[in-house]
Amino acid sequence: MKILIDGMGGDNAPDIVVEGAIMATEYTADELCILGREDAIRDLLREHGYQGDQISVINATEEIENDESPVRAIRRKKDSSIVKALNMLKEGDGDVLVSAGSTGALLAGGHLILGCIDGIERPALATVYPIIGKEPSLLLDAGANVECKPHHLLQFAYMGSLYMEEVIGRKNPVVGLVSNGVEQGKGSLLTKETYKLLDETSLNFMGNIEARDIPLGIADVIVTDGFTGNVILKLSEGLALTMMRELKYRFTSSNIAKLGAAMLKSKLYSLKQDVDYKEYGGAPILGLNNALLKMHGSSDGYAVMRTILKAIPYVREDVVGKISKAVQRQNELGNAKDDSKQILESK
């Protein structure tokens, strides 16, 4: 397997990318290929004392910044690490791409260069949602599609369920639809119509879920439009950071016995692991013809390593192929229903 890594994406690239790639070599024998400014990347490899041949480097002289127009940047910056990596994926010279670069550029480039799976209209950003004391959930869409139609959310549900089963290892994942009430009739026109579609599938659909229940891990796959999903994600991140900061302040400023403080420190570390995005690797962009994982822009070396390792089962379990087959089966089922309806109406 050949894992392509965007060496210039993220707040601290290429330093953290090189660090994470070296860390990953301790856990996988797969080929790692870093794309970016070759001289700088090779200098960093030497500084870290890396002397192996598992990591290769491909020169890319341009960078796509977060404040650039994604579509324009993809079309103009042909020698950027993102564009070169996406073209390598398309040509079969790589199995998966991981990047902490511009989300907009990755989405635009994925759509323009790789294309969507036949039957999928829009790719979705699927983010692992940490749950305290339990296994994480998967939230999608987390920001790729601000405005959606019911059949888009139906596709998100199928893709999210397959990813949870094949990559995360959650069998028969529970699917929940975000709404402002658990009753079937609650929500906007979008959620009401989506509910009807999901209720007719073979998915393990539990119905509507409210935002307050999401942190409790009530559903394995959380389905919503990109605007709502991104608000949920950002609010949750802010609450987690505030909670950790407040707990740290309260416990370090009080007169707790040393033994009690040590025990609390261990508990706090465990809690931090539960809510830390670095533990879960990058967010897959589902629905494209190739495997693509988006890391947080502020990722460190550890987060890069975790994302690289998460990319392996993504490819090995052929999630892209399984999504394609699932969509094809759903389309065939829908066509069969339409044919039956036409026959009945003609009698």
Largest sheet, order of strands side by side?
3-2-1-4-12-11-5
Please tell me what the overall shape is. globular
Average the pLDDT over all residues and give the rounded result. 85
What is the tally of helical segments? 11
How much helix, percentage-wise, in residues?
40-55%
Strand proportion? 5-15%
How would you characterize the overall build of this protein?
The chain is α/β, with parallel strands linked by helices and 347 residues long. It is 48% helix and 15% strand. The chain contains eleven helices and twelve strands. It has helices spanning 15-24, 38-47, 70-76, 81-90, 103-114, 150-168, 189-199, 226-252, 258-275, 301-316, 319-346, and strands spanning 2-6, 31-36, 55-59, 96-99, 124-125, 127-129, 137-140, 174-178, 204-209, 221-223, 283-286, 291-294. The chain has a seven-stranded mixed sheet, with helices on both faces. A five-stranded mixed sheet has the order 6-7-10-8-9, sandwiched between helices. Helix 6 crosses helix 7 and helix 8 (226-252) packs antiparallel against helix 9 (258-275). The chain is globular. The relative contact order is 0.15. Residues 267-275 and 336-347 have low confidence and may be disordered.
